[in-house]
Amino acid sequence: MPASHVCITRDGRRFEKPSSLLYYQDGPPTSVDIQSWRLRLIGQVPRPLELSYPQLLDLPPVTESRRAVCICNWSVRHEYTGVRLAHVLEMAGLDRPRADALMLLQTSIGTPEKGQYQSTVPLQTALQRNAMICYAIDGAPLSLERGYPARFIDFGLYLYKCVKGLSSLEVTPEYRLSYWEERAGWPLDGTIRPKRYWFCDLKERRYVEKEGEIDEF
What we know:
Blueprint: E1 4-8, E2 14-18, E3 39-43, E4 49-51, H1 53-58, E5 62-69, E6 74-84, H2 85-91, H3 96-99, E7 103-108, E8 118-122, H4 123-128, E9 132-137, E10 140-141, E11 151-153, E12 166-172, H5 179-184, E13 195-199, E14 204-208
Parallel strand pairs: 3-12, 6-13
Antiparallel strand pairs: 1-2, 3-4, 5-6, 6-9, 7-8, 7-12, 9-10, 9-11, 13-14
């Protein structure tokens, strides 16, 4: 098991959560130059986008209480704030019917030592599950470990499919395992499976009977 650290919810409750550093295969960068950072939406879109951090924050925000799940079998619920993936795709001129036949390749900022982390997800299911580009958790900007300045999250997938420290989102027809996913032996699909998970915020184990996003508790 990875090491744990203490988290505090917005209502003051404390709980321990395994560190995600072990599962962030490229390692978090030690710093990010937010002035030069850009989130690029590229590939098979009519109007490629390049968003600065202030421009990302200026887009219509959504805040939702949703549950994330790690491949190492823990889960926690937080309030996530960000921008709908659907909204960013609309800005790039990609309509929903065409998007449903394509994939989204996420690429991280990365580090000089280990390069960039990538993961590909189907756009169709990401849009169905209201995936977002997240930049704050529980009202605070993401830390470097959690994916500052922005992280893609599809809540129906294990977190290894949701890249931290985004540098680009590429719309592509190709659906493949990335280097780090293949090295770790993780499946391409990454859908959350029915099984027993440790719910850090609830401090108990529960069995989940359905596939996909856990939204019943």
